[in-house]
Each structure stands twice: as C-alpha cells, then as structure tokens.
Amino acid sequence: MQKDTFSFLDDGPDLGGLSQVDLERPNVARMYDYGLGGAHNFAVDRRQVDLMHRINPEGPLCPRANRDFLRRAVQFCAGQGIDQFLDLGSGLPTVGNVHEVAQEINPDARVVYVDNEAIAVEHTRRILADNDLATIVHADLRQPDTILAEEETLRLLDFSRPVALLIVAALHYVDTNPGIVLNRYRDALAPGSYFVGSHLTGDDRPDIMRAIQEKVFSESSTPLTVRTREEVTALFDGFELVEPGVVYTSDWRPGPEDYQPRIAGEVTMTWAGVGRKP
Ligand SMILES: C[S@@+](CC[C@H](N)C(=O)[O-])C[C@H]1O[C@@H](n2cnc3c(N)ncnc32)[C@H](O)[C@@H]1O
C-alpha cells in the first residue's frame, strides 16, 4: 500500500478501523476515484486503470462524462421540484457530490447515499458529519428491502412523495437480473419520482470492451457486465423516458460546465437516461 492515500487511513495500522478492506484486489470505487483524479486509491487500483487506458485511449473520458451526466441529471430533477434523492452505488465523494449539487438548488434537499465499499462509506460518513440532511448506508444495492427499510433511509426520505432514484455507473456490477432489483425500487416510489441511470456498454467498441472485461475487471472485486442500448433502455420499464432518451452520457443535455477535451467521434461507452414514474 502506498502511504500517499488517505488521511483517515493514517489513523493507525488497522486502516482507521477498516480492517475488512482487501488491499490485494482492485476495487471499482477506488478505480473510479483514480479515473476522476482523486487520491482515495491504492497502487493495485491505479495499475488497473492505467492498463485500461492503454487498452482504450478513450478511457479517460468515460468517468468524467459520467460524473458530468450525474450532475446535470441531479440539476434536472431538482429543477422539477425533487427534494429527495436515493443514490445507490454512490462511490467515493468527489467534486460535485449529489448533496452539494441538489442543496445548491434547494438547501432542504435530502440525500441518502448507499455503497458497499468500506472506504467509500467511511469517507462519505466523515464528509457528511455536519450535514443533517444527507447520510450514507453501508449496504448492497441488490438488497432493496434492506435499504428501503433502513432506519437512516426512513429518517430522511418520505416515500409517499417523489424521490429521485440514482443508480449511476453501478448496475453494470450487477451480473444477473438488474431488472428485478429495479422493479422493487420502482414499486416503492411515488408517482412523479425519477430514475436516473447510466450503464457501461460495448455497443460501439466490442473488442475494446471485451479486453477491458477480461484484463481489467476480472481481477477486481466486482466483475463487469456490459449491456446493449436495448437492454439498458429496458431498465427504464415503468418509467417515461425524458428527452433525449437513452443516449451516451456526453449527449444527455450537455452543458457548458462539462469536461471539454473531446476528440471528434469519441464515445463514452456509457448509456444514460432519466425516466419519470407516471
Ligand atoms: C463507478 S462508481 C460510480 C459512483 C457514482 N455513482 C458516480 O456515478 O459518480 C460505482 C460504485 O458502485 C458501487 N457498487 C458496486 N456494486 C455495488 C453493490 N452491489 N451495492 C452497492 N454499491 C455497489 C462501487 O463500490 C462504486 O462506489
């Protein structure tokens, strides 16, 4: 482990109490953090991301375009009057966290983050220590009943009113039946709620994506399952897609604040969409 990583990991040899962290295997939360320029990652994570960028020169665009999509989608939902957010697979806190984006528009907005990676959870907990309107639950998003009944979830979210459910760049770590998991969340949402989703794909880069799956993610603690645009669109069943439908992250209502260095024809390899529950 390199010593340049976390402030709270310097608390002691038990990684600040996070003894369950597997330092030998790359983890997607920390790889994504590295891809976004963050410091909450280990050498094993960085090695895999560097390998991915050698396989795919377009690679650096993907996490940035995804993060930009997340920001725009949260701004969109807040603009529609949504003041409650359930963010599953929320990741390591970095610039433009959901509570910051939402609370800039509505200071009373409430956010429940969920992640199953111990460092992401601990870091989020520390960042939110003074924020009564945002919290993190350490759980597996494939356990909707647990998450929906969790005390912290119910402390902040009122499911009789619309909620924005965010599962951004996380469902591709669910290998079987993501639709069944989603149905359970959708059924718990009031009419007027939104589902914001993004998902990795190999549609336009099949060989590159296959190499990434085999060489980069097979060793990680969360192997990657990519899906076609049709399969990703089906995840929005029961929601009415808002314009422009399911498109690459960079094409979903792009704005002036977005990450700019783009090469013509580059694709983010991530489908994205926002749907409203009628
Ligand atoms: C690529 S990051 C995306 C972070 C954030 N949603 C974003 O788009 O900026 C994916 C996150 O999903 C989390 N994750 C993966 N599988 C999960 C699961 N089964 N339950 C909860 N979180 C999960 C990972 O730990 C990681 O933090």
Short description:
It contains 10 helices and 8 strands. It has helices spanning 28-35, 43-55, 61-79, 98-105, 118-127, 144-149, 151-156, 178-188, 206-217, 229-234, and strands spanning 84-88, 110-115, 134-138, 164-168, 194-200, 240-241, 247-248, 270-276.
Main sheet characteristics: 8 strands, mixed
CA distance, first residue to last residue: 49 Å
Domain tally: 1
- Evaluate the radius of gyration: 18 Å
Shape: globular
- Predict the CATH topology: Rossmann fold
Spans of at least 5 consecutive residues with low confidence: 1-7, 10-14
**What would CATH call the architecture?**
3-Layer(aba) Sandwich
Task: Set down the secondary structure blueprint.
Layout: H1 28-35, H2 43-55, H3 61-79, E1 84-88, H4 98-105, E2 110-115, H5 118-127, E3 134-138, H6 144-149, H7 151-156, E4 164-168, H8 178-188, E5 194-200, H9 206-217, H10 229-234, E6 240-241, E7 247-248, E8 270-276
Parallel strand pairs: 1-2, 1-4, 2-3, 4-5
Antiparallel strand pairs: 5-8, 6-8, 7-8
Helix pairs in contact: 1-2, 2-9, 3-4
The structure holds S-adenosylmethionine.
Report on the architecture of this protein.
α1 (28-35) crosses α2, α2 (43-55) runs antiparallel to α9 (206-217) and α3 runs parallel beside α4 (98-105). Strands 1, 2, 3, 4, 5, 6, 7 and 8 form an 8-stranded mixed sheet that branches. This protein starts with 27 loop residues before the first helix and ends with a strand. It is of the alpha/beta class and 278 residues long. The protein has helices at 28-35, 43-55, 61-79, 98-105, 118-127, 144-149, 151-156, 178-188, 206-217, 229-234, and strands at 84-88, 110-115, 134-138, 164-168, 194-200, 240-241, 247-248, 270-276. It has one domain: Rossmann fold (3-Layer(aba) Sandwich). S-adenosylmethionine binds at residues 28-29, 32, 66-67, 70, 89-91, 114-117, 120, 140-142, 168-170, 173, 222.
